[in-house]
């Protein structure tokens, strides 16, 4: 995982007049990982010699170094931007407050008004576990609670805390929206347990290790990630790959271990498909598939039902947590997992999974306005940082990313 990206002041990204220095202390809580921040500051102090960092990291860090000397601009003549800026400050205060009791906050989990900013970052994995419990996955699947927390904490650690929008809180927010959408469309009647499991995992991991710049920036700057993935769904490929690596990295985080090899392969395939669907370059292709399917009068075709519990009962020989390569307690003979059909997903189920993650990923715009504004402010902060980096290296500033021309926001 790459490091760096010096901490920058979101207020400076907005060019806030005269507030910038006094707000520094308020802004600091957004950098929730002090160790990473220290590394980032170090990187920002001498970015020219740290060639092992990605191009995006270096450019961002360099951009942040120079921002402190940039003259304050008159940016606030756009009412909407001013409002967003105020909201950003409120958001940071909310993150800083974190006084609310988790048990009380989670009582509102089933509502679109659920305020995820009321949860301390370190408590977010508990919210994740609560959602998996509520959906019934701990009952339906052989999930080990200790491994589950190990995996979630590992994923949380790979989200970059200094990235204003695409951080672990956004991941948990998308997971929460997925959870609500599943309920809204009665998704569990159309998706089998493995598909629901893959969907929730994908929601949690869909932006892991996001550097805070977009695919176009990575491509035009010849970032190592762009080279690795041949400019194709660069970030989404990286998020999916990082997810799979995290699952396989350690026994203590491999929550897929109890599944058969065929089941593991199927879950991995679904994870990749669902995460890649969040690439907006695929948006119109997916929408066309949805339109085409919507005009088809055939009923929704569900995938074959999946139940590990039923399989065990049917066979009578499948031990808890065993896989196709498990050994018997004596260690003398490999226990053969009773044959059960390899899991598969229909086209309809796959399309529904893609639509659910896509809707959840951009759902904050349809939430109550007090939440929408916060997320918009954080996204704008991230975009302005990229715009500043583009100016620094002489690239045209991307649409909506020019902090000095907020009137152009569309
Ligand atoms: Zn996202």
From TrEMBL:
GO BP annotations listed: signal transduction
Annotated signal sequence range: none
Gene3D superfamilies: 3'5'-cyclic nucleotide phosphodiesterase, catalytic domain (1.10.1300.10)
Domain PDEase, residue spans: 94-410
Record field: compositional bias (Low complexity): 323-345
Residue ranges, compositional bias (Polar residues): 1-11, 18-27
Ligand binding (Zn(2+) 1): 170, 206-207, 361
Region (Disordered) location: 1-44, 311-345
Catalytic residues of the enzyme: 166
GO molecular function terms listed in the Swiss-Prot or TrEMBL record: 3',5'-cyclic-nucleotide phosphodiesterase activity; metal ion binding
Chain sites annotated for binding Zn(2+) 2: 207
Residues in coiled coil: none
InterPro entries, sorted: HD/PDEase_dom, PDEase, PDEase_catalytic_dom, PDEase_catalytic_dom_sf, PDEase_CS
Transmembrane segments: none
Keyword line: Hydrolase, Metal-binding
PANTHER family: CYCLIC NUCLEOTIDE PHOSPHODIESTERASE
Protein name (record): PDEase domain-containing protein
Source organism of this protein record: Adiantum capillus-veneris
Lineage: Eukaryota, Viridiplantae, Streptophyta, Embryophyta, Tracheophyta
């Amino acid at each position: 995982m790459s490091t760096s990206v010096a901490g920058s002041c979101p207020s400076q990204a907005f060019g806030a007049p005269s507030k910038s220095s006094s707000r520094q202390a308020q802004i600091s809580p957004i950098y929730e990982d002090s160790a990473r921040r220290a590394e980032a500051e170090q990187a920002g102090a001498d970015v020219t010699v740290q060639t092992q960092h990605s191009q995006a990291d270096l450019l961002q860090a360099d951009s942040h170094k120079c921002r402190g000397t940039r003259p304050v601009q008159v940016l606030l003549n756009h009412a909407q931007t001013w409002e967003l800026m105020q909201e950003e400050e409120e958001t940071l205060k909310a993150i800083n407050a974190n006084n609310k009791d988790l048990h009380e906050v989670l009582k509102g989990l089933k509502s679109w008004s659920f305020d995820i900013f009321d949860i301390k970052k370190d408590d977010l994995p508990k919210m994740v576990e609560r959602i998996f419990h509520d959906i019934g996955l701990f009952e339906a699947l052989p999930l080990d609670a200790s491994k589950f927390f190990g995996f979630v904490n590992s994923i949380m650690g790979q989200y970059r805390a200094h990235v204003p929008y695409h951080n672990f809180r956004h991941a948990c927010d998308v997971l929460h929206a997925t959870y609500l959408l599943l309920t809204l469309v009665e998704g569990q009647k159309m998706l089998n347990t493995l598909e629901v499991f893959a969907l929730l995992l994908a929601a949690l991991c869909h932006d892991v290790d996001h550097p805070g710049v977009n695919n176009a920036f990575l491509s035009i700057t010849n970032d190592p990630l762009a080279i690795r993935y041949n400019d194709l769904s660069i970030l989404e490929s990286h998020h999916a790959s990082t997810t799979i690596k995290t699952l396989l990295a350690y026994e203590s985080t491999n929550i897929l271990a109890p599944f058969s090899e065929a089941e593991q392969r199927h879950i991995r395939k679904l994870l990749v498909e669902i995460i890649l669907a969040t690439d907006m370059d695929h948006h119109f292709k997916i929408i066309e598939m949805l339109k085409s399917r919507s005009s088809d009068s055939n009923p929704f075709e569900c995938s074959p039902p999946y139940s590990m519990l039923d399989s065990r009962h049917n066979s009578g020989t499948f031990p808890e947590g065993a896989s196709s390569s498990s050994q018997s307690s004596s260690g003398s003979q490999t226990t053969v997992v009773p044959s059960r059909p390899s899991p598969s997903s229909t086209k309809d189920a796959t399309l529904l999974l893609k639509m659910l993650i896509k809707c959840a990923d951009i759902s904050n715009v349809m939430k109550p306005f007090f939440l929408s504004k916060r997320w918009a402010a954080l996204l704008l902060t991230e975009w302005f940082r990229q715009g500043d980096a583009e100016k620094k290296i002489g690239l045209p500033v991307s649409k909506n990313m020019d902090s000095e021309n907020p009137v152009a926001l569309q």
